[in-house]
Amino acid sequence: MGDDGKLASGDGAHIQIDLLGLNRYPDPHQHELKQHLINLRNTKIHTKKDLTPDNLFVGVGSDEAIDALLRAFCTPGKDKILTCPPTYGMYGVSAQVNDVGIVKVPLNAKDNFNAQPDLINEKLSEDPSIKMVYLCSPGNPAANLVRKEDVRKVLEHPTWNGVVVLDEAYIDFSPEGSSLAEWVAEWPNLVVMQTLSKAFGLAGIRLGAAFTSPPIARLLNSLKAPYNISNPTSQLAIQALQSQNLKVMHSNREAIIKQRERLLAEMPKIPGVGRFLGGRESNFLLVEMLDQPNGKPSNEVALQVYERLAETRGVVVRFRGKELGCLGCLRVTVGTEKEVTRFLQELEGVLGDVYGGKAANGRSNGVEEKKEKEANGVIA
Prior knowledge:
The chain is α/β, with parallel strands linked by helices. It has helices at 31-41, 61-73, 90-97, 117-126, 148-155, 214-223, 231-240, 243-266, 299-312, 337-361, 367-376, and strands spanning 6-8, 16-18, 56-59, 80-83, 101-104, 130-136, 163-167, 190-195, 208-211, 273-277, 284-289, 318-319, 329-333. 41% of the residues are buried.
């Protein structure tokens, strides 16, 4: 930090953050920050209308928006939300904290984990206590986009008048124009959540945004703490959204996408790696681990790979075998070129160890069945 109280980048050129004035409360309205976020999403792809800062709520990560929406639209002990597993776990956690019920309409695991809008609409027709539908796009852990026509089907439900929430936390790893944020100008009951934690690499500043109609934005802004976004957080976000720094984000994103393609090409060459499930639109991949090379998906093997990578190789992936349609699956986050090289080497080594151990055992003795049962009991 310089003598003038400003935090600068290494060359002093790209980032100028004024840390003076911290004895003052931050701006509760965040107009400048909101305008930059709006500028980012006014693409004119999904509507000819312009979003304004009145269409935006900013909070402490997307999790604050998830909680605020529940408090705004659901009566504890009475109302419900609808989720589509496998999906982000925070929707359910926040619902439980707020004493809100959960109705589940699973993604179609046989159809690339796409949403099932007809089944969703059936549930909405049957149960008027469902006030919100949460859709994750790209999905977590399925990594695929929710089709625009599927979102439209739910929005066009003839009698239900609840809120459709589209979580686009990973949207910047998807093809250009995938975000439906600006579409909120056409649909008064659509909320699109985003975050700077993923593609922007700013998880530490804890900033999330909800694009929606002005009435819903006003309601959410009225519910939040008045100074929930600190001055340093706001300034760091504004700088990240400047054109020269957006170029840095885009460059980093392209590097991640390149390594994602590399994983898609190289992982299948490793004995014991099965199919990639879901989509390719995020910075992670959902992939099966097999009970033997060219065998069947196995939670036992997936759990062993997960544990051995973490405990003996210092590489962390996510075990997702307990999620609906994800038998034997790991969720693998795409890293840098160096990290991907190491991951591929360690994965091949660990799978070799797992299969070698099973072969050396030579008999079951009920051990494999016991391990399978233990693996099935793990909740990721």
